[in-house]
Structure formats: C-alpha cells, structure tokens
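Team,

Forwarding the record for the chain on the shared tracking sheet. I've put the sequence and predicted structure together so nobody has to dig through attachments.
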Amino acid sequence: MREMVFKKIIFTAAVISVACTFYFLGNWQLERAAYKKELIQNLTRPVSKTDIQAFQRQSVHELRRYEVSGGEWKNSYFYIDNQFENGLIGKRQYGIYCLEKRCLLVRGPWITNFKESITLNQLPLIGQVRRLPYSLIKANEKAIQLPITLVNIDKDYLERHFEVKLLGYELVLDAFNQNKHQVSSVSVHRHYGYALQFYLLALIVIIGYILAK
C-alpha cells in the first residue's frame, strides 16, 4: 500500500515538473519575442547622441541606437569565431573604445578566414546598444595568438588580456548590423509559435495526468 502511494507521489511530482518546464519554456519564448520586436522597432528610430560616460552611469537604454563620443579607440581588436552569415562561417571582429581604462566593446564586421580585418576607427561610431551576454565557456588563459580569437565574449578574460575594465554593453555598428538590413517580423512570429507549442504541451501533460487517474 505504501509503495503504491509512494509511486503516485513520484508520478505526480514528475508530471508537475514536466508541465512546469513546458510552461516556463513558453514564457521564455514570449520574452524572446518581445525582445526581438523591440530590437526591430528601435532599428528605425532616430539616433541619439551620447558619450561613453553615459555607459558608466548606465543611463543608456538597451536596443536604442546611439552616436557615441568622448573616448578613443584602443589599438587592439579581437575575433569571435564560428559566426554564421549568409550561410557561410567566419569570424566577427570586435574593437575596443575607451575612456581611460573604462571600455566599450564595439561589434564590427563579419569576415571570412581569408579576409583582412577592417580599421574600425575610420567608421562612424553609430550603432545599437546591447548588453553583454553571460559567458558560459571560459577562454584559454594560455592563448597567445594575436589578435586573439575566442568562441564567445568572455568579459573576465578580455579585461585581464587588455588590462581594461569593460562596461556591460556592446555597440553593434550600423554599418555591420545585419538586422538593420533584414528587418522582418518572421522571427518574432516564430517565437510566438514556439510559445504556443510549449503551452499546448503543458496542457496535454496535465490532461493526460487527469485521464490517467
């Protein structure tokens, strides 16, 4: 008798866990849809002028477009590897724009492995502000290749390597912002579709549990 009760408890807990997982995945897809929608809307809004000190004060708004001044380019850059664009794989070049030791990462062009880097300091410093992602994969401290090539933005490693303090943002230059040239609501609708699927799966699990009882 006790064994049957225990099995029912385990089964109920498993059903609740699965249903909650699908529910939270649905919520996550709705958040992604809202983020993509705001990203697309801000691409067509006017550019605001600001300086790098505004990033230190955290008075800039994520996904807004800014023309940034008040600093100078650091004579260094790095690559993020395994970046896809137009069905091809290559690298993403990043520059570093600083006021003393406080620096902003500037996302530049996608380049193939056979193409030379671009001098970013000759381009207008105008782009869309995004927060730096959390790094799940840490860079290799022994990497000595110059310019360095990473698999993702490891903020801690970059700060140690370049001896700077990075602000928590990146500026995606308009000249290389693929979303700016391919504004589409398809990806937004796709996230809504995924959310609906997850909510339906959660509902199916609950209905199946009720019927099984």
